[in-house]
Design brief:
Elements: H1 15-32, H2 35-42, H3 48-78, H4 90-116, H5 119-126, H6 129-140, H7 147-163, H8 165-170, H9 175-198, H10 204-226, H11 235-259, H12 265-271, H13 275-287, H14 293-311, H15 313-316, H16 327-335
């Protein structure tokens, strides 16, 4: 996490402000850990691309309803007249559109890589986004990371690869599929970094709504051209895609976007490497799947690497109230919020 954003004052560092953001991230991880299970069920009825499309348009409706209810509640509570919509600079609008673009490109490229290479390769290469998030933050946004954070990051990524090491040895390597899976992790990293940059310009719900709306619009021609069956045909199919939209997209990714207001994109992407740990534990409990020595070693490296990164004080403190601002700067920042 950037050092220039991490000097919390003692007065504002109460326990609640530290614990609540962490709890939110944990809830998000639990919600996202169910993604693989829901997709595994959904692809029995429709293709991965159609599954992604349905997940996105249903999530768009959920975020739209959430936004509408929030606006009505705010007007009733504050008893204020409806104000004209705030105009945003072209640069901020472009960044918001870019968020939706890289969001759908990341999902599509990773989904397509599954058809060109083994699942183990796609999962391993797709999990490298913390490296690109950290590198991008350093190159483009002047973020500085502590030594413990970097070491912990490397250990956690090695652990993620070790989890699927045996599958990697058995898989037939395909350069094209592997390259696309690697590219998907770059799109995921760009998504985190862009959201982090516009987090103080747009409300969380606005970012989530427009990200899904833009991604859905981009997916429409794809599914119309490539897919014969776009919508689910059974009740179970509809329930699964609704669960993907409500639990994984709205709750999981919604809370992740919210967490980017408190933690750096590099730190959040690193925490997402806990997903293999949660999924492995759930598979062991629910499906009695055995864990090999490489699985256990990988899970241990992930947990150890994340713990090492968290132990670096500069990597875990909240970004809230991290910079001393003059009253004029505070007023200017407040006026830019939606």
């Amino acid at each position: 996490m950037a050092e220039n954003q991490l000097s919390l004052t003692p007065e504002n560092s109460d326990k609640t402000s530290k614990i609540l953001p962490t709890i939110i991230v944990i809830i998000a991880l639990l919600a996202l850990s169910s993604t693989a299970i829901f997709i595994k069920i959904a692809v029995r009825e429709m293709s991965p691309v159609a599954t992604l499309f349905n997940r996105l348009w249903i999530a768009t409706i959920i975020f739209g309803l959430w936004s509408g209810i929030n606006q009505v509640r705010t007007q009733i509570t504050e008893d204020k007249p409806v104000l004209p919509q705030q105009r945003y600079p072209i640069k901020e609008i472009a960044l918001l559109i870019a968020v939706g673009l890289v969001h759908v490109l990341g999902r599509l490229s990773w989904t397509w890589s599954l058809t060109q290479t083994g699942a183990a390769n796609a999962n391993a290469l797709g999990s490298l986004n913390p490296l690109f998030t950290t590198l991008g933050g350093w190159l483009f946004f002047n973020q500085i990371f502590g030594r413990k954070f970097i070491i912990g990051l490397i250990l956690a990524v090695i652990g993620a690869i070790a989890v699927v090491f045996e599958d990697l040895l058995r898989s037939n390597h395909n350069f094209t599929g592997d390259a696309v899976a690697l590219i998907s992790s770059i799109f995921y990293a760009a998504n985190f970094l862009l959201i982090e940059q516009i987090g103080n310009k747009f409300s969380m719900i606005a970012i989530l709504l427009w990200r899904c709306a833009i991604a859905t619009s981009l997916m429409i021609p794809v599914v119309l051209i490539l897919e014969k069956q776009v919508l689910p045909v059974t009740l179970s199919g509809w329930l699964v895609v609704f669960a993907l939209a409500a639990i994984c997209e709205a709750l999981g990714h919604g809370l992740i976007v919210y967490s980017l207001k408190n933690f750096s994109s590099g730190f959040i992407s690193l925490l997402l490497l806990l997903n293999p740990v949660i999924v492995a534990i759930l598979a062991w409990i629910l499906f009695s799947e055995n864990l090999s020595i490489f699985n256990l070693l990988g899970l241990a490296l992930i947990v150890g690497g994340i713990y090492l990164a968290i132990s670096n004080k500069e990597s875990v403190q909240s970004k809230i109230n991290t910079q001393i601002q003059s009253p004029a700067e505070i007023d200017s920042s407040a006026s830019s919020l939606k």
